[in-house]
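To the wet lab folks,

You asked to see what we're planning to order before we commit. Fair enough. Below is the target structure as tokens, and below that is the sequence we designed to fit it. If anything looks off to you, flag it before the synthesis order goes out.
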């Protein structure tokens, strides 16, 4: 059956409302000062400055989106993304990668599991827009997973 407009708006508001839990990994701490003031207006932003500490944090807490900037070392960032995709608790986590504008590794980033990217220098408002899209998609996917688990299995 179709969901009428009023019910759909109510569903959207329930699922999409509220601050997101975002983990920002920034090795050189240059991006944090640029984006944290804007992103933290609407979301709970957690910051880590090393991939090792980030993995520990990801094992201890649940996040809805991950933003990664490993300074000029985009190759290390790709390796880190591949590692994240190998773990069950992070395999479906949306990853936004901040790439240096002079590096041509976009196809490699997508192969490594990156969902989206922004180029440095960053426009924080563009980053917020992309973050909000991935957050909404993640929440809708989580909601669908819950609904699917409740459905009876046909045999």
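Sequence we intend to order:
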């Amino acid at each position: 059956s179709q969901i009428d407009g009023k019910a759909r708006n109510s569903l959207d508001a329930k699922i999409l409302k509220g601050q997101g839990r975002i983990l920002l990994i920034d090795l050189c701490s240059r991006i944090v000062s640029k984006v944290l003031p804007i992103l933290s207006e609407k979301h709970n932003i957690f910051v880590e400055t090393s991939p090792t500490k980030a993995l520990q944090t990801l094992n201890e807490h649940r996040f809805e989106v991950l933003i990664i900037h490993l300074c000029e070392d985009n190759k290390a960032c790709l390796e880190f993304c591949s590692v994240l995709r190998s773990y069950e608790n992070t395999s479906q986590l949306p990853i936004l990668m901040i790439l240096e504008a002079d590096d041509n590794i976009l196809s490699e980033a997508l192969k490594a599991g990156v969902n989206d990217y922004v180029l440095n220098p960053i426009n924080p408002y563009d980053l917020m827009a992309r973050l909000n899209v991935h957050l909404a998609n993640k929440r809708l996917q989580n909601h669908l997973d819950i609904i699917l688990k409740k459905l009876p299995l046909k045999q």
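Structural context that might help your review: The two ends are 23 Å apart (CA to CA). The first helix runs from residue 5 to 16.

Thanks,
Computational group
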